[in-house]
Amino acid sequence: MKKIVVKFGGSNLRRPEDIDRVVNVVQTYQRPLVLVVSAFFGITNALVACVQAAKEGAGKLSALAESRDYTLTLRTLKKDILDANIADLEQRSRTEAALNARLDQLERFLTGIHYIGDVPDFVNDVILSYGERLSSLLVTAVLQSRGIAAREALPEDIGLFTDGVFGNAACDFDASTGPVSAALAGDGIVVVPGFYGVSRDGKTTLFGRGGSDYSAASIARCIGAESLDVWKDVDGFLSADPGAVEAPHPIARLHYLEAAELSYFGAKILHPRTVEPLFDQAIPIRILNITRPDLGLHAFTVIDGERTVTHDVVKSVSSSDDVAILKLHGPGVGFKPGILAEVTSTLDRQGINIKSVLTAQTAINILLAREHLEAAYDALATHHMAGVVEVSRNDAVAIVAVVGDGVLDASNVGSAIASRALSAALAGGVRVTLSAAGASEVAAYMLVDREDRRLALRLIHAEFFSAR
Q1: DSSP notation for 192-257
Q2: Residue range 337-396, pLDDT digits in tens
Q3: Residue 410's pLDDT band (boundaries 50, 70, 90)?
Q4: How does DSSP assign 67-123, residue by residue?
Q5: To 5 degrees, how large is the angle CA 242–CA 247–CA 250?
């Protein structure tokens, strides 16, 4: 029997009592599983802040004390979780000792930053992995305390190898498939911390922020899983963000490409890279809701390779304000060869990812994550490029996308999908900066003034869904 890989994210792990829900879900399956767990909610962000504070305060006793205070806070939090979930005093004591050993390791890494005054990439990645390392140990211990046969398996022990890129690694499936499949064979429950793998030389490398979904998908591919089940606290993918649109429609089925684009353009259900390992493996992704125990293993959204074009084509409208524009100006920048190659090389050396590029004769518009805008501007504004007379930036924008199989060739439903979306936004007074279609066969998007994001979302959603 093929195993199911089951992913529990930080939204499932907010409070000590949330582990009860995880245990109940595991018991519902009544079969061997591979569990992939994220850090408890907020832990990774706190670790990021802790690393930055340690770096900025290197050599100061006050900063060193702050780092130790944070690990003390973690010890208290984990003890509270143990007290709430493990009744047996002896097992609780053993688990607390194991957790403290890992927290001792974390504290040594943070202390090291103070002494050297820097955070090497490999140190940053290993520190940020500790949220997941603590979760997997805790979840395993609680499962065992409830009489469930469970064991923990760390990525470095099962051979989940990466390409060695710090901060944003990809799984090396040629190297990983054999050892991971062998290590995760057998009965019982295996709990794996998400978010990281190891390079060929054994260094911890992260799969990027939110990368536990990608970890789970990579493991699912390695073992040829029956499915990847992702447990959330919402009813799967919807036609829009329920916080911005009244009564959005549920989406029962999505193609891999549609799910990837929705995630890329702001939907918070999956990490954008989750479908990448599964796309050519026919392993479905099922989205389930941990707050609806009465429905058992009911999947609200199933993501697979089946393509379906609905009557109005658009399945969902997604948006995000995590975007900014870096613009290169010059009378011939769109014609002069080599500029884009120079730009991408410069940004790549800074570890900056480009979301999209739109070009014209007199301008090249580069879309980036907002957090990368200043670094990208500094890199390009000080880097002389022939033909570029000015570099400007704009972070007061948001992106709104329509996603659905058939968006690119939707002549059978009247006017083009991208035109309908743009017209609906403009007619409602939305200030549109850029509009693009054709980059994806299942998505079209526009950049709007950030203050108009929710208005644009409502108007475009009404255009495609009000009559349904």
Answers
A1: EE-SEEE-TTS-EEE--TTTHHHHHHHHHHHHT-SEEEEEESS-S-BSS-TTTSSSPPB--EEEHH
A2: 778 888 888 888 888 888 888 888 898 899 999 999 999 999 888 877 777 888 999 999
A3: low
A4: HHHHHHHHHHHHHHHHHHH---HHHHHHHHHHHHHHHHHHHHHHHHHHHHTS--HHH
A5: 80
